[in-house]
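Study this fold:
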Amino acid sequence: MKKTILTALVAVFSMTSQAQSLEKMQWFNEPESYTIKGGTLEMDVPGQTDYWRIAHYGFTVDDGPFLYATYGGEFEAKIKVSGDYKVRFDQAGMMIRQDHENYVKFGIEFVDGKFNISTVVTHHTSDWSVIQLENPIPYLWLKAVRRLDSIEIYYSFDDKEYTMMRTLWMQDNCPLQVGPVAACPDGQGFKARFSDFKVKHLPDQRRVEWLKNNQ
């Protein structure tokens, strides 16, 4: 009987991914111009915006447009992003955020005329890592998997084969804001597009282990 309950519990928490309703999500730094239609968000990313804390540059900014929903527990999140990148540091991707001192943003960033798969991890101060691409790409799929106190982030060019680009620490048992983000630190703005945003809740590993050991 207990085994049956455990199996059912895991099945419930392992439900298939469901597309999130972008219209019901909340804005942090809402842009002046954007549309949400058919599960796609297109925005005019305002110029002179970014997310960064202290390291290297000596300043802190927290003013890029970020559309989010809040999730607790463990989850997998995916999104498809593209943009009409123009100048250095134009960027579009996904952000997972606890607060203004703890977040990760990752996606495409345009640097010195090249497309880069970029990650910024912030815990009080920010760090930055990039994977430079030889050729421009029309879009990029991003995926994040939160397990206990870690988040693994991945990228894909086809939503089939994913490559892990970073593992980072994030406080567990704490709700996180998740969703599309964009920024234009140096320029006057550009258009970014986001679609197929999905979040799948995952079974809590501690609970599953406890149930397994206490059948």
The longest helix spans residues 2-13. Helices lie at 2-13, 205-213.
